[in-house]
Design brief:
The protein is mostly helical and 112 residues long. It has helices spanning 2-6, 14-24, 32-45, 52-61, 65-77, 81-91, 97-107. It contains seven helices and no strands.
C-alpha cells in the first residue's frame, strides 16, 4: 500500500481518492504507516470530507512524531491551519515533549 500511495499522481482528484477509499477502506486501516501516508495524500488532494474524523482520531491517539509532523505540515500547507490547531489543542497533552516542541514550532503554537 505504501508504494501505491506514494506513487499516486500529483493530479489525483478527491473523487479518485474517494473511489479508492470506497473500494479498499484505507481511512479505516489500523496500520499507522499506511494511515499516515493515506491521510497525508488525502489532505494534499483535498479529500477531507472522507477522512476528517478519522484524521482527528489518529492525531489524538498516535503520538509518534514521524506520523504527526507530516500530517500537521500538510494541514498547514493546504490552508487548514485552523483545523490543525483545533486538533492539536485536543491532542497536545498526550504527546511526548519532543513531539510537542516540534509541532509547537510548526504551527506557531503558544499556550495562552
Amino acid at each position: 500500500w505504501l508504494h501505491f500511495l506514494r506513487n499516486l499522481r500529483e493530479n489525483t482528484t478527491p473523487e479518485q481518492l474517494e473511489l479508492i477509499d470506497s473500494r479498499f477502506n484505507l481511512t479505516e486501516t489500523g496500520n499507522s504507516e499506511i494511515a499516515c501516508c493515506w491521510f497525508e495524500k488525502s489532505i494534499y488532494t483535498g479529500y477531507m470530507n472522507g477522512i476528517d474524523n478519522k484524521l482527528e482520531e489518529f492525531l489524538v491517539t498516535v503520538g509518534r512524531r514521524k506520523f504527526l509532523t507530516p500530517l500537521y505540515r500538510a494541514l498547514k500547507a493546504t490552508g487548514r491551519s485552523d483545523r490543525a490547531l483545533e486538533i492539536y489543542g485536543k491532542a497536545r497533552s498526550n504527546y511526548h515533549h519532543v513531539s510537542r516542541h516540534t509541532i509547537d514550532e510548526l504551527l506557531d503554537y503558544s499556550e495562552s
